[in-house]
Every structure is written in structure tokens, then in C-alpha cells.
Design goal:
mainly alpha, two-stranded antiparallel ribbon, 13 helices, 1% strand
Length: 276
């Protein structure tokens, strides 16, 4: 009985503000307040599916970013980098495939972030429509995200999922190019912005726990991938050269470039060794 009375009071004030022309802000409400009860179960299911795929995408791109920024050439010879090349390209292809599924996949039953935001608009209560529309304007894809999303679709169709021949010459179709990790990141952030709008201000972590930015005692936590990189560094000749060639290290040091010494000493300091 008390709940019914409270709902009637809340409804009265909402209608009062709407009639007065004041916008109700939906950036900090719960789904139970945003929709009629019969839609909430479907909303939660659709929302969870998008969240799960964004989490895979975001974490995949975090891994790609770490791989791109690690200076493999200083610590591993070219013949031993095949594994890491495959890791990079397989994760990149997965990121592109996830972007395709989240943004540009076509078909009546395909569940994308853009269809989800539209469905939310169709079911949101009238008192929240204006506010939701304004928020969607703020998170609308810019031209670069639109372009890179379409590029992801083209790469997925012509390179990852299929290899197409030209009908007349029987040659492979022209190279469709690629997407840099920074471009994948920008598309991912655009997707997350729309997802946040559809979440009405509730915060959702979009990386798996091991890859979530966190600190312990004021220091950033390390991922398992960071641990692997440290093992690669510790076992490299480049890192151990000052000790292994101590008798003539000064002459070797003088021949190294400033960039080499900067990278060497960054890792030696990080791993508790004296500056070379």
C-alpha cells in the first residue's frame, strides 16, 4: 500500500514538472524508474549482452595497446617474435569482429549498440524522453568513428571472414588496409559512451579484473601480461649486457644511442638494477 502511495506522489510531481516545461534528468535513474515493468526484464537481458561484448572488446584493445608499446626489438630477436605477431593480429582481428557485431552488423534480429539505444528510446517513459534525447546527442558517433566502424566492417567481410576474388581476373580483391590500435580505441570509447547513456548514469567496468586500472599502496597494479614482459626483459642479453660485458661496458655504452640507453635504464630502474 505504501509503495503505491509513493509511486502516485512521484508520478504527480513528474507530471507537474513536465507540464511546467522543466526537463527531467535521466542521467541518474534506475531501470525500474525508466521503463514500465513489462520491459525491464528484456532491457536487462539486452543490456547485459552489450556489456559482455564491450568488456571483451575493451580488454582486447588494452592487450593490444600493451603489445604495441612494449619494445620487443630490443629484447627478442626477429626469429622469436612470431608468437607475438600472431597474438597481435589475432587480437586485432577479434577487436574488429567485435566492433562489427556491436556497430555495423545488419539484419532484423541483429543486436547492436545503435539498435539498443533506439529500442531504449522506444520504451522509455515519456517523462524521460527529452532528457534521454539530449544525452544521445552528446554521445553521437563523430565522423571518424563512423568511418572507422565502416572500415572494420569492410575488413571483416573482405579479409577476416572471407577472401574474395575479382570475377574477371580471378585475382584477390584489393587490400582493404587496416585499423591502428588507436583507431580501434576511439571506436570502443564511442561505443562505451552510448552504452553509458543507455545505462542512465550507472557505472559499469568494461575490462576484466586483471586489466582494470587500479592501485595498491599508491602504485599501479600489474597485469599477468606485464609479468610476462618483465620475464622477457630479465632474460634478455640487452638488459643484462652491463653485467655480462662489464670489462668493456663503457666502450659499448658510448656506442649506444640515447634511445637505447633510455629504454635500457627505464627497465633496469623498474626491475631494481642500477643505471647502466
Amino acid at each position: 500500500m505504501l509503495r503505491k502511495i509513493l509511486n502516485r506522489i512521484l508520478s504527480f510531481f513528474m507530471n507537474f514538472f513536465i507540464k511546467k516545461g522543466k526537463t527531467m534528468n535521466c542521467s541518474n535513474i534506475k531501470p525500474v524508474d525508466a521503463f514500465d515493468s513489462e520491459y525491464i526484464k528484456k532491457y536487462k537481458a539486452l543490456h547485459k549482452d552489450i556489456w559482455d561484448r564491450i568488456t571483451r572488446l575493451d580488454t582486447t584493445i588494452v592487450i593490444l595497446e600493451k603489445i604495441v608499446h612494449f619494445p620487443f626489438d630490443y629484447f627478442i630477436g626477429p626469429d622469436k617474435q612470431v608468437f607475438w605477431h600472431l597474438v597481435y593480429f589475432n587480437f586485432r582481428d577479434m577487436a574488429i569482429t567485435l566492433i562489427y557485431g556491436l556497430v555495423t552488423d545488419q539484419g532484423k534480429d541483429k543486436h547492436t549498440i545503435l539498435k539498443f539505444k533506439n529500442e531504449v528510446f522506444q520504451h522509455i517513459k515519456p517523462e524521460w524522453e527529452k532528457s534521454y534525447r539530449e544525452i544521445l546527442k552528446e554521445v553521437k558517433f563523430d565522423s571518424e568513428i563512423e568511418r572507422n566502424s565502416k572500415k572494420a566492417k569492410e575488413i571483416r567481410h573482405k579479409f577476416i571472414a572471407h577472401r574474395l576474388f575479382k570475377k574477371n581476373t580471378q585475382e584477390l580483391t584489393d587490400d582493404v588496409g587496416g585499423l591502428a590500435v588507436s583507431e580501434l580505441r576511439k571506436v570502443c570509447e564511442g561505443i562505451k559512451n552510448i552504452f553509458n547513456a543507455c545505462s542512465f548514469g550507472s557505472g559499469y567496468a568494461t575490462t576484466f579484473l586483471d586489466f582494470t586500472n587500479a592501485t595498491i599502496g599508491g602504485k599501479p597494479t600489474q597485469t599477468h601480461l606485464d609479468d610476462i614482459f618483465e620475464l622477457i626483459v630479465k632474460n634478455s642479453g640487452f638488459f643484462n649486457e652491463p653485467e655480462e660485458k662489464s670489462a668493456y661496458w663503457e666502450r659499448i655504452r658510448d656506442k649506444k644511442s640515447p634511445e637505447e640507453l633510455e629504454i635500457l635504464n627505464y627497465w633496469r630502474k623498474k626491475l631494481g638494477k642500477h643505471e647502466a
